Amino acid sequence: MKDLVQSVELGVSQRKGIKATRPKVWLKNELVRVGLAESLCTYVMMVFGLGSVAQVVTGQGAFGQYLSINLGFGLGVAMGIHVGGKVSGAHMNAAVSFTMCTFGRLTWRMFPVYVFAQLLGSFLAAGTVYAVYYEAIHDYCGGNLTVTGVKATAGIFATYPAPYLSLLAGFIDQVFGTAMLLLCLMALSDQKNKPAAAGSEPVAVGLLVLLIGISLGSNSGYAINPTRDIAPRVFTAIAGWGADVFRSGNGWWWVPLVAPPIGGVLGAGVYKALVEMHHPPLSEQGGGLVEELEEETAPLEKPKNIFGSTK
């Protein structure tokens, strides 16, 4: 309340032409600022995403279907980018952060900060969704928290493979899904190609996640994000589902942890090798094209890349 009063007084003083000193409440440490923003945007994305799954599962189809989950995560990603895009870049995905470090768009010293922030945001979001849907979950499963079976609820929080899916096929599934994510993210930010228009990046990335969900999601729930999967999985192990969250699916838990970073580097590498590396210098292009590119360019500084991921 004190801060609110100070802000109001500051605004009134400015309107009256009185010189006022802005309260020094900013965090100057880049690591802290980036970490807080990345945690919050990941939290926002995960609350909307996991919340959509919880609503579909506990509502038994009365409050949405599979498309609802795709929309929940897609729109959640868009909102997350609005929350932290200009501060941390809103990666919300360790595979994105790893790929950015690999290609020199993010310094390696920042990688642990991003991963920790994403883990924290995802874990807190899982706890929040569990609290909000606590009674609904227990009413749905009769208080028996299971990982598999007709009334399984662990899938609300982490991904599990379809019964027919082998570990090898699932690994390939995660590599390919994440490769498509990073390939398209590279295209959306390529200022010499056809990037997302300035200001439209959140919607564009959200639509990309929605597209992956409705085309590549049925095998294993399209985690395509290590931190999105492992943090809620750990939460469920603590909250009552037990060690089965790591044993289920022939020990599936490590696949969404290892495969996405590999897929991310492959997807981004393919785009760079086949498209980005072959752009002619602007000076060699026609004047009209140069002007068009300049108009469409929305500079993405390294700490401000709008690379919101998924899920």
UniProtKB/TrEMBL annotation:
SUPFAM superfamilies, sorted: Aquaporin-like
Transmembrane segments: 31-57, 63-83, 113-133, 164-188, 200-218, 251-271
Keyword Cytoplasm set for record: no
Region described as Disordered: spans on this chain: 292-311
GO molecular function annotation: glycerol channel activity; urea transmembrane transporter activity; water channel activity
Keywords, alphabetical: Membrane, Transmembrane, Transmembrane helix, Transport
InterPro entries for the chain: Aquaporin-like, MIP, MIP/Aquaporin
Catalytic activity reported: glycerol(in) = glycerol(out); H2O(in) = H2O(out)
Record-level GO cellular component terms: basolateral plasma membrane
One Pfam short name: MIP
Cellular location(s): Membrane
Membrane topology note: Multi-pass membrane protein
Principal localisation: membrane
Homology family: Belongs to the MIP/aquaporin (TC 1.A.8) family.
Protein name: Aquaporin 7
